[in-house]
Amino acid sequence: MAKVADKYFKTDSWKVIEEGFNPDYGKVAESIFSLGNEYMGIRGYFEEGYSKDKLIGSYFNGIYERTKPEYGHYKGITDFSEYMVNSVNYLYTRIEADGKILDLADADITDFERVLDMKNGLLTRSFVWNVSAGKRVKITFDRALSMTDVEMAMQRITATALDSDVEVAVTSGLDFGEFHMMQKKNMWNCDRKSVNVAAVAGMAIEGETINTGKKVYSACTLECLIDGVHTELNGLNCETISEEKLVATKIKLTAGKDQKIEFVKKIRNLTFKDGDSEGDYESEVKTIEAKIADASVDSIAVENFDSFVDTQAKWWDNVWKHSDIIIDGDEENQQGIRFCIFQMFQTYHGAVKGTNIGAKGLTGEAYNGNAFWDTETYCLPFFIFNNKEAAKNLLYFRYKTLDEARKRAEVLDCRGAFYPIATISGKECCDLWQHASLQLQASTGVAYGIWFYEKIFGDKEFMADYGLEMLIEISRMLVSRGDYAPDGKYGYYAVMGPDEFQMMVNNNCYTNYMGKFTLDYTVKKIDEALSANSAKFEELAKKIGYDPSEKEEFKEISEKMFIPYHEDTKIFEQHDGFFKLPHLDVDEIPITDFPLYSNWSYDRIYRNDMIKQPDVLMFMLLFNSQFSDEQLRANYDFYEPRCIHESSLSPSVHSILAAQLHKEEEAYNFFGFATRMDLDNYNRNTGEGIHTTSIAAAWMNIVYGFGGLRTDGDCIRIAPSIPKNWKGYSFKINYDDATVEVNVTKEKVNLKTTDDSKVTIQIYGNTEAIDNKGYECPLE
Amino acid sequence: MAKVADKYFKTDSWKVIEEGFNPDYGKVAESIFSLGNEYMGIRGYFEEGYSKDKLIGSYFNGIYERTKPEYGHYKGITDFSEYMVNSVNYLYTRIEADGKILDLADADITDFERVLDMKNGLLTRSFVWNVSAGKRVKITFDRALSMTDVEMAMQRITATALDSDVEVAVTSGLDFGEFHMMQKKNMWNCDRKSVNVAAVAGMAIEGETINTGKKVYSACTLECLIDGVHTELNGLNCETISEEKLVATKIKLTAGKDQKIEFVKKIRNLTFKDGDSEGDYESEVKTIEAKIADASVDSIAVENFDSFVDTQAKWWDNVWKHSDIIIDGDEENQQGIRFCIFQMFQTYHGAVKGTNIGAKGLTGEAYNGNAFWDTETYCLPFFIFNNKEAAKNLLYFRYKTLDEARKRAEVLDCRGAFYPIATISGKECCDLWQHASLQLQASTGVAYGIWFYEKIFGDKEFMADYGLEMLIEISRMLVSRGDYAPDGKYGYYAVMGPDEFQMMVNNNCYTNYMGKFTLDYTVKKIDEALSANSAKFEELAKKIGYDPSEKEEFKEISEKMFIPYHEDTKIFEQHDGFFKLPHLDVDEIPITDFPLYSNWSYDRIYRNDMIKQPDVLMFMLLFNSQFSDEQLRANYDFYEPRCIHESSLSPSVHSILAAQLHKEEEAYNFFGFATRMDLDNYNRNTGEGIHTTSIAAAWMNIVYGFGGLRTDGDCIRIAPSIPKNWKGYSFKINYDDATVEVNVTKEKVNLKTTDDSKVTIQIYGNTEAIDNKGYECPLE
After folding, report:
1. Distant-in-sequence, close-in-space partners of B327: CB < 8 Å, separation ≥ 6
2. Can you tell me the distance from the alpha carbon of A633 to that of B458, in angstroms, rounded to the nearest whole number?
């Protein structure tokens, strides 16, 4: 069941390039050309309108709607969902030439090219439109989002008549009228609207979601330049448009032959969401409203389009300086991994406190824009080693939503906090109870995230203010959700581990293992807190009603936790009875049966020893130093052949562990499409949005896999290897206030810091002090 | 967690009596006073209208609607449901006296009495209405359904002014306007309507369901009698009413003091449902339409109300003659068991081919009017020994819906036929996949039903025409749904047995046992068919593409079927790992936690060794002769303390087996409320409708429990015992063309046939020939 590339974009180490337009790839390209700055994200759709298949997706982190399915239910079963809601199309444009409306679905065009430049985040699209015989117009669309002033976006449309004068009409505005793709309806009420024309057009519109009362206030100016010269709009033929969910300005003019007509739109989008002060929001809206009323070129921003792009280039330059991965001898993976890093920074970089990472980032509506346990398990390592602030913000999201997790625990008849499997606001949004009620890994994943963050940064303040409270609440859940077997062993019953193809099992090894880890870690942190600053801890204890006997309970249950390990074979049994399940040879499943969720009867998936994704191998990666290579090999050899990798995260985990076991061919095969999963649309669903969490896994794949980075021991360790067809590669980790560059060639490994700092790293088992003079050793 | 009676009705051995009206019991009484004749059922609602809590329920067997919940799903998960739809209120009445509208919610009444007579099926309600000071009107409502001409119903309303003349207005009609309780909407379109007044009022209306196109044509005549004398309606002040979903006639007259004013309504209801010919239905409708147009007293029926009731009395007399149970010394249980038998015959007696028994019969809308595996497992024994035709019809329903079961198997990736857990039309209507996809007992239950029916009646024609085809298709499912464990044993994975508190388990003992039984029985029947009439079998084989190798597969899998039995303890393990589950002391659960489905987090139910209802004990009852008392005792003693009897069917099974094990006190305690579950509203939900299948279990409880009847061996066996506080009891079984009466006293057991026939019965292990002279032996 090998996945096959569907290559469409041109390979280039710093750019993503589409040459010529193929409508079959319309939505895939929309996803790939998404821009984002954590605060907002916009798909690469054709802003001028397009009558074929498309998703005019414009999203804001934390702006979501709520739905109530009509579905009878039992206690603890979620009867609603929250989803990231498609918002204002602030690039809204319509273009007419000689009365003909531009629509790439049927327009006669040549020289189509679209380029995303990963050095500055600029997306450019250009083509020549054959309006009619001997009437060609060259049109270029540029767009960029601000990475520093995240409410800002800019758009530039340039039109030049190539053959003779053309009558041009351009409509540009702000549109809340798009439907949500999954819900098939529009969820916005728009009461506040303004549009006026002076030196430029000034427009603003506010949308409010129907059920959740979230607000987006979108404002813009629209300037016209002719041959680079600002042209007052009130001197042109302008028409203002104000409809139910749309404001726009229509400008008609004659584009003389070879004249460069430019429309520059500066946009500012404000949001009102959970935790925001309505007063602050209102006063910001009022300030902008007043500026827009002036409708001067500088109402939204003083920068022009080019200087705006320069600002972004500087920001990205810093990113690449600290986070670039260079692959020598494999341009496809080079482009792929840069695309991954670019997307990771677009999705999340610590700009907005209190949000999380949706499964598709801000690039599409699949998975409802919900965040999963992927955040701590797959995304956090990337941020830990590239952007501390982002890592901290992600964990802070869990603290901010701790009360919701407490409520969820209560409805599940547990004590403490039970973190949701899928969420936006902190509420459990997964209406499949078999996942929402049976999967404990979101909760233990939060504990793991705290542990990982503390291990790398030693942030005692975070631990005292947020971390320990979460740990105690999660541990309370863990000692109330499980039970004792007749033999006195403690375990979790009726659970689903990471492997979602074994639904309702007892003593899932991952769940028990992570439960034990969480309890042990909590006990340790309580002890530390007691000795470090006992007054502070007393305050916390009082706040959450913590009793000293609880620590004893945590300890006792941890001691009695059942870890199903078979000493003779060195294999962990995934859950009670796993070894007695009927065996299914996964290679015998016809390729047409995939994805199994669509083609197999739902229950059929759960009747054998096939697994969807790593489960035992997962905790052996997370706590790698706890296991010998012999143990790892035994479990890898047992579980890998049973795994069908139906989760997009599965191959990377296998690749990393295969690299550790010197299974070089397997490691590279599993790495295979990791960096290019979306660029080459391996899963044939990139059109729905980017696989954001897989992108994080691709980074791990190189750094943890070939780089051999391990971070769970006392000191961080690396043990690089190199794929056969690479000449060399380098990656950077930001650690202990230093940026460490690791260069690997066929012969040797070189480590150095990029500034004056020194760090201690274990390489191939030898502890070394690394500075900017570098350390070199042969490749093992 | 003892259940407590909520006694409201007066005890009487042949009647159910309500003395005085208490609105708190309004819906309970509506359910208890339901009338039914298998074809249609009507709740005991106040036909004159009632503004407090009520359910104006009027149902027709096989008349159902369909709904599509908006719920994303996977393959094999039902995304719609079918439900018995509330239909025409053919008793629709409104009564005014001196301009005041009668409504028992606020009317000043005395002498309220309601009586259901189980000797003739007549329901009578009467009271004195104090219209105003010194203006009393006595009103009596009578209603009955025909048991022989099942489309027919009659209603009589009698009013007498007791003090002085009263101006009376009575509106009577046919109303399709009621809402469905669960769906909270009306599902009928009514295009065909007529109402005219001549000697009597003639009215008719047709309703058609919106989604399923089922039709009900309801027609009636309404006659007025004054002091027993027919009074032409066109001589009175009459008004005809025709609204969107209602036709009615309003009659105004002065009721002189002591004058007896009677309104007699004769109703005929035609239905058009699955399998009916539209042409036949239309021609019947036309015939009645023509008669109604005449509006003569005899348009619907020649019988008057009293003779109509006499006809029913004769029918019921025959029922009691063959099926009565007499309990000496316990009037409450006497009334209770008669009520059960009465309800069983009302619900189903073989009048209509191709229908089944809904969980609430025709008395309410809970469980959507769907039929469950209860039909074969709990209801069939009653019909087998009381009404062969009904038993055969029930099995015929499964044959009629075999194609739907084939389609269901296909969508579940199985071969053969997979019978639905909940159904009306044969389609799976349970939208909880964990039941619909994981429970195999509906299918093996059909095989059991066929086996049982054949065992008692030896109906070779049924087997050749219907039975064997079903058996082969079920066996095909059984050999495709299961799988082999690594040790070569065959079993079923990811299943739910009868015990619904262990959801998704492997090798459920009941499922494996019943699977093996079904395969063995099918092989035997194939062999018999081959030797008996091989041409007929060849025809079947050709029709269903049966290959001789299939029989070998059935045999092989049966041989390898894993039955988890522990020789040392003699206990069957309910499923893989059951003995290792955490133990829950069910007696420790606070009574306020019940029902657990409402008060516990859904998943919490599934994390321990608590069981909802018998599972291992169930097959030990069905195939009782296969097990020694020692085995039975070991399993009873192990499983009973773990059972919370959350299914209303559970206590009867335990009572029957406790009786067998001479646990007399337990047997009587579990019997406890079996016969009076609804009369005394033990589950506090009788208002939703009668527990029809529990009623069947109550019968089993006496006949199989105290009577000790067993029918799975070569000869039917009885082994009576008697509860301590009974003086004696008798029951009848209709078997081998004879009616056998079994009389049990404290001292002895007497068996005799009630006519000339002779039957062979094993009593306390001795095989005896029984005739009408009787056989007597001491009670053991």
Report:
1. B333, B334, B337, B726, B728, B729
2. 62
For residue B45, how many other CB atoms are within 10 A of its CB?
23
Could you report the per-residue pLDDT of A6-17, keeping only the tens digit for each?
Answer: 999 999 999 999
Ranges in chain B, pLDDT < 50: 1
Interatomic CA distance for residues A131 and A161, integer angstroms = 10
Among A382, A360, A363, A385, CA closest to A371: A360
3-state secondary structure of B573: coil
Taking an 8 Å cut-off on Cβ atoms, the answer to whether A581 and B493 are in contact is: yes
Name the CA radius of gyration of chain B, rounded.
27
- CA separation for the pair B396, A607 (Å, rounded): 33
Q: In whole angstroms, what separates CA A523 from the centre of its chain?
A: 32
Q: What is the DSSP string of A645-698?
A: --STTHHHHHHHHHHHTT-HHHHHHHHTTTTTTTTTTTTS-GGG---HHHHHHH
Please report the ipTM that was assigned to this predicted complex: 0.91
Residue in chain A lying closest to B507 (CA): A581
Residues B451, B456, B458: CA angle, nearest 5 degrees: 80
- Taking the C-alpha atoms of residue A589 and residue A576, their distance in angstroms, rounded to an integer, is 26
Distance CA B621, CA B653 (A): 8
Q: Residue A598: its chain B contacts at CB < 8 A?
A: 74-75
Cα of A671 to nearest chain B Cα, Å: 30
As beta bridge partners, residue A372 has: none
Distance from C-alpha of A434 to C-alpha of A457, rounded to nearest angstrom: 36
pLDDT tens profile A560-574: 999 999 999 999 999
Nearest-CA neighbor of A175 among A90, A93, A51? A90
Residue partners of B197: CB distance under 8 A and separation at least 6: B233, B234, B238, B240, B249, B295
Q: Which of A253, A254, A225, A249 is nearest to A239 (CA)?
A: A249
User: Residue A98's closest CA among A107, A90, A89, A88?
Assistant: A107
Q: Are A140 and A165 in contact (CB under 8 A)?
A: no
Among the partner residues A70, A487, A604, nearest to B69 by beta-carbon distance: A70
- Closest Cβ opposite residue A69 in set B71, B493, B608: B71
Cα distance between residue A608 and residue B315, in whole Å:
56
Shortest distance between the Cα of A587 and any Cα of chain B, in A, equals 18
Give, in degrees to the nearest 5, the angle at Cα B372 between B521 and B2. Answer: 110
**Which tokens go with B640?**
């009973």
Instruction: Name the residue among A62, A740, A703 with its Cα closest to residue A351.
Output: A62
CB contact under 8 A, A603 and B76: yes
CA A752 – CA A683 distance, rounded (Å): 38
Q: Which residues pair with A170 in a beta bridge?
A: A95, A251
| Total count of residues recorded for chain B | 780
Residue closest to A434 by CA, chosen among A41, A73, A68: A73
- B607 vs A486: CB contact, 8 Å cut-off? no
How far apart are alpha carbons B629 and B652 in whole angstroms? 18
Is A504 exposed, middle or buried, given 0-12, 13-18 or 19+ CB atoms closer than 10 A?
Answer: buried
Considering only the beta carbons, identify the residue of B493, B579, B603 that sits closest to A494. Answer: B603
3-state DSSP call for residue A615? Answer: coil
E strands, A288-386, in order:
326-328
Size of interface A-B (CB pairs under 8 A): 124
User: Is the whole model's pTM more than 0.90, yes or no?
Assistant: yes
Q: Which residues of chain A have pLDDT under 70?
A: 1-2, 69-73
Instruction: Write the pLDDT tens digit of every residue in A80-128.
Output: 889 999 999 999 999 999 999 999 999 999 999 999 999 999 999 999 9
